[in-house]
Amino acid sequence: MELYLDLFSQPCRSVFLFAKTVGIPFDLKLVELTKGHQYDEDFGKVNVMRQVPVLKDGSFVLTESTAILRYLVQKHSVADHWYPAELQQRARVNEYLSWQHTNLRAHGSKVFLFRALYPVVMGTEVPKEKMDAALEALNQSLTMVEEKFLQNKPFIIGDKISLADLVAIVEIMQPFGTRLDVYEGRPKLIAWRDRVKKVIGEKLFDEAHEVIMKAPNLAEEMKNNTDLEKFKLKLQKMFS
Known about the structure:
alpha+beta; 2 domains; Glutaredoxin; Glutathione S-transferase Yfyf (Class Pi), Chain A, domain 2
């Protein structure tokens, strides 16, 4: 089985962390987004959408991180708590995975892009009102994680970790990589993060997030990379 990943991407990190944590063997095919590898002809044959992650299992090709996570759970013998067989517990995992796309993921990604890439792409700082609105939306999502999903439980669906926790932690770490302390004043979130890290293992957790923790250097790398014009144009349209 091959996994096409870039650990700069939070969905890729969730797939990487899950496969590594539960011991699913795979060949890593690195697709470095900040170097424009997604536009290579060979990768276009694997995924016409030119996005990661991608799973290739023999002739079977699957895209979308949450679909890949569910496929891995159902193909391999892993502990039930990752994606419980019990109907309502599984529904809770699915509830979180459905919610996060347009909430925590969207808002955390926007703050990350504003802080890490907007100045180099647009040639100016982010307008204060835009940044304030993005930070407020992210804070609302973080509060929802605490109050709606975690409540007083150790993990999102109960006493044990699930796919929902993995998907949540990688999204929260994205803006954190820009040196924004998203955990400040949130002891419940800090305690949950530490529990997740303990289950995964700090060494593996740090390995997965090594690239994103260097995000402050990303703008300079992009500035000097002439192969990223397509990527920059896409961001300019997003920011304008």
